[in-house]
Amino acid sequence: MNCAVCGGTATKLNIEKQPVCSRHVKSKAKAPACPDCKLPMMIRAGKYGAFWGCMAFPSCNGIKKI
Ligand SMILES: [Zn+2]
Ligand SMILES: [Zn+2]
What we know:
mainly beta; 27% strand; binds zinc ion
């Protein structure tokens, strides 16, 4: 998994349950805007690790890699 703040190797989860590296345990990643509907995105866990998913899911399927 990649750190949601810097993209480095994530080893922990922060208070928002976002995957982060040890340097960013106290940081929160700024949620990107959905590429499809422009709503903020949320960290979601998938089979292949965490990713940004649209908060309007399932009506919107916008995703972004962390
Ligand atoms: Zn980091
Ligand atoms: Zn969306």
